[in-house]
Amino acid sequence: MKIIDLLNDKRVTLSMEVFPPKTTTAFENVSRAVKQISALKPDFISVTYGAGGGTSEHTISIAKDIKDEYGVNSMAHLTCVSSTRETVEQQIIKMKEAGIENVLALRGDIPDETQFPLPGQFHYASDLVREIKRIAPDICIGGACYPEGHPEAANKKQDILNLKEKVDAGCEFLTTQMFFDNSIFYNYIYRLREAGVMVPVIAAIMPITKKNQVDRSIQLSGSCVPARFKAIVDWFGDDPAKMQQAGIAYATDQIIDLIANGINHIHIYTMNNPKVAAGIMDNLSDIIGK
Ligand code: FAD
To answer: From the alpha carbon of 145, which atom of ligand 1 is closest?
Structure first.
């Protein structure tokens, strides 16, 4: 099923993100986690592409398994920053052959000390969106957006104008970077709509359930951390069980507030942790009717 059809429905959707193994030896662990997360029957599962050290070679096969073996809608991520046009084209053709119906089109982070873009490389995600539309016009395309502004953007206003170009190129929905303060998201949605970006936006929530995730997540995302969240990490961070429970509670609280404010589409960065995904799902069972 195309994700845009899910999102155009009025009901609340809860989707989840997983990442492929970082090494081939980790494949078994990831497969097990993906199976367990699929068993929770989220509305769809997205599979990252080379993010956070994960390899990109398994993205399509995991997205295919989720769809064909476990009966859950899936989406494959695709980046263009470290690839030639030929590699990108091959990946899109592989997706078509695997029956992938949804792709999150991303530029990817520019690797350090790399000359970018090399001649002939795609420069922005909007270039990738156009390429996917050219090769696989039936695939539903999503893109990333940044409630606190993308770190490279000159300013938030310019970032939204650039985002509008991505949407005009054929991006049908957006998924946000993680945020820990919902008021930032509400303000952002207002600015998007004011700028004429009218496609559905999925609010993505990162449950921080380990103390060591805090610095890394914040460094990668550039997200602001509210005092209330800092207090939780300070108090519970050295006790893994307590920190996990508190992180699940904080993420649940964010999601309930979003839904209560009319935001229907929520994505959870599961970090391949079925226990955390299940904990959040349990807390919301009546609210989302699952
Ligand atoms: P773009 O949309 O191309 O934007 C990048 C920057 O360029 C922005 O500052 C934008 O304002 C600017 N820009 C865009 N168009 C123009 C223009 N025409 N002129 C001037 N400036 C322009 N990374 C991975 O490697 N793998 C993943 O699987 C992955 N999944 C992600 C999922 C989500 C939901 C999010 C939010 C991020 C994900 N990322 C992933 C990280 C992402 O690749 C990085 O944040 C990357 O730096 C930007 O990618 P983008 O697609 O948003 O780029």
So the answer is: 36
